[in-house]
Structure formats: C-alpha cells, structure tokens
Design goal:
This protein is α+β, with helices and mostly antiparallel strands. It is built from five helices and six strands, in the order βββαααβαββα. The protein has a four-stranded mixed β-sheet with strand order 1-6-4-5. It has a two-stranded antiparallel ribbon with strand order 2-3.
C-alpha cells in the first residue's frame, strides 16, 4: 500500500527597489537586471513557497524560527538550505511531484522556466518532467500583477511505500 500526502505552500515578497547589490533569485535561478526581493535571506520566493509546501506534509514549520536560526545565527541566506532542512522531516515520504504558480508582472518567467525546472530538479532529485511551473501577471489585479513584488503558490505531492522493511523505516528517521 502506498500513502500519499499533498502540501500547499505560499509565499510573497515585495521588490527592494533601493538595493542594487543583492540579486534576484527565483527557484535557484539568477535573474539579472531586475531588482531583488526584500528579505533577510536571498528571498527566493519560489523556494520559500516550496519549503512551506513541504512543511504542509511534515507538519514541521521551517520558515520562521528554524530559518531565522539559520539566517541570523549561522549566516545562511541560501534558501536551498531551507528546502533541504524541510526535507529532513519527510520520514519515509519521498517527493514525487511539485507544481508552482508564479504571479508577477516582472520579470518574464516563461523564458526561464526550463532553467528553473533544472535547478529544482537537481535540488529535489526529481526528473524535470515531475516539476510544473506556470506564470501569470494576474491581469494587474494584485500588487504582484502591478509589479510591486512576486507571489508563488506551490503544491508538493509525496508518497510513502507502506511495505518497506523495518530497517528502511528506521533509516528514514
């Protein structure tokens, strides 16, 4: 028997139009010639939504106290580390699919989707075919569609084979 869990994550950040040194990173992909997002970390809103979706599966919130510890006390601002931290709590579940929906007026996401999928594939050890990314401007109806920031929703599907050996189960903790 296989168990399936689904987690939903959301995150949003405003652009930091005053910062001319911090890069804009989305899904682990560098977007040049665009203002960065506000945040204590690299503010990778895609990876933050992904982290929250994994937390929806595990019940362990990473963004907040755990990420603050990593960021402020250990100096870790790379959001990939937050995703990796969230994955530590999957306890036998394996991510088999993710889907991200990005709302932003700028930058143009569609031309960079393949690159973002490749980055996420490497991070999650998934095939690029198991990663979906869509983008919308939202017709300018929200602050994100008006170019004030970026919002991302992410759904993660994870499975767990219930017919594993006791050793495999123990090793997953």
């Amino acid at each position: 028997m296989t168990r399936i869990k689904t987690g939903l994550g959301q995150d949003s950040h405003r652009f930091d139009f005053e910062n001319h040194t911090k890069p804009l990173i989305l899904g682990g992909t560098l977007f040049t010639d665009h203002p960065p997002l506000q945040g204590n970390s690299d503010a990778d809103v895609v990876l933050h939504a992904l982290t929250n979706a994994i937390s929806g599966i595990t019940g362990v919130n990473i963004l907040g106290a755990v990420s603050d510890e990593l960021c402020f006390k250990q100096g870790i601002t790379d959001s990939r580390v937050y995703v990796q931290e969230a994955m530590k709590y999957l306890k036998g579940f394996q991510i088999c699919h993710i889907s991200c929906s990005i709302e932003a007026k700028t930058p143009k996401i569609s031309p960079r989707i393949a690159e973002m999928k490749a980055s996420l594939s490497q991070l999650l050890n998934l095939s690029v075919e198991d990663i979906g990314i869509t983008a919308t401007s939202g017709e300018g109806l929200t602050a994100f569609g008006r170019g004030e920031g970026i919002q991302v929703f992410c759904i993660v599907t994870a499975t767990c084979d219930m017919f594993r050996s006791p050793k495999q189960i123990l090793d997953s903790f």
